[in-house]
Amino acid sequence: MANKFQQRTAALLELIPEQYDGALIISEVNGYYFTGFNCDNGYFLATKNGCAYITDSRYTEAARKAIAWCDVEEYGSGKMKQVCGGAISKLGVERLLVESSRMTLQQYGDMSEVFEPALLSGDGGLDSFIQALRVRKDAEEISFIKAAQAISEQSLKYVLGLIREGVSEAELAFEFEFHARRMGAERLAFDSIVASGENGSMPHAVPGGRRIRRGDLITFDVGTVVGGYHSDMTRTVAYGKVSDEQRKIYNIVLRAQQEAMDYLISGGDDLAECDAAARDVISAEGYGQYFGHTTGHGVGLEIHEFPTVSFRGGKIPTGAVITVEPGIYIPGKYGVRIENMMYKTEKGAVNLTGMDRELVELG
Q1: 52 vs 110: CA distance, rounded Å
Q2: 153 shares a domain with 124
Q3: Do 185 and 62 fall within a single domain?
């Protein structure tokens, strides 16, 4: 019986137009999706006449163990063109699609030369085919995302217990990573954001030496990776009592997020309508100019992937995992963002984030 990687490869080949013999995949993330093997220097040939994986001696043994269903070819110094050309000849390949969004012009030129006499096409078709497959998460993929999210929630709760006046943003970010790795995370999903006080007005602030003060709002945007799959969550908490204005803005963001989540839960499947559900709440309260980014994005093998929850619209495919993360950012003062992950099902959507969203006043 074919394993899941063979099934994914077969599904891709079903999408490729008949005038092409297959696909050349050179990106690490897509190579992993179709083979289950992580490699920063691998070339996966998926063709209608068979498959081949080409790499160098650093990875050959591991690749042959991981991709037993596929021929693995090794190239040595100065032998790449010979090995790649040999694989093309063996598979009878004349025309291949390539990942135009993952390849520089120089790479395209290099690949065109080493995979001669096959002709490579970077018309964007392969990217859309892969996107259509990757966006629909199966049960195992969802289990990995849930596991990563559980670690993130446990680790953030641990870090919240460490907040004291005088502790720095960088120290809190370090503690999150240390705890997450100890809990079993493979790595962070991205560099953690810990933004306190006036730094919170920058959506992607970098944790630094600023030390927590009483009255601060503190935004944590964190995620981890399990099984290659990412989680993404944002929570904004307070150290000490909040002002009336801070509480008001927090509640506006919370209500905006809930509106967008309710839209998805009820079966809504339009990206622009989901974006508007959150954005309209913030705009109606007079803070529209302080919400500049999109409402969300897809999550999976990458922290940002298809689809994007924005005014540009489009349908949300069943099986997609997307974030809902509205925010309000007051320059020079503070910011508030709240983010959950949602899993789109045939009947609506399921919230994958369990951590409480009500405003927490610590200390």
Answers
A1: 19
A2: no
A3: no
Distance of CA 267 to the CA centre of its chain: 23
- Three-state secondary structure call for residue 131: helix
CA distance 56 to 78: 11
Cα distance between residue 258 and residue 208, in whole Å: 31
* Cα-based distances in Å from 125 to 15, 100, 131, 239, 351: 10, 8, 10, 50, 32
Describe the crossing of helices 80-91 and 105-114 by its angle, rounded to 10 degrees.
70
Domain limits for position 70: 4-134
Tell whether 52 and 171 lie within a shared domain.
Answer: no
To the nearest 10 degrees (0 to 180), the angle between helices 169-182 and 139-160 is 130
Length of the chain: 363
Does pTM surpass 0.85? yes
Task: Count CA within 13 A, CB hemisphere, residue 14.
Answer: 8
Indicate the range of 72-76, 147-151, 163-167, 254-258 predicted with least confidence.
72-76
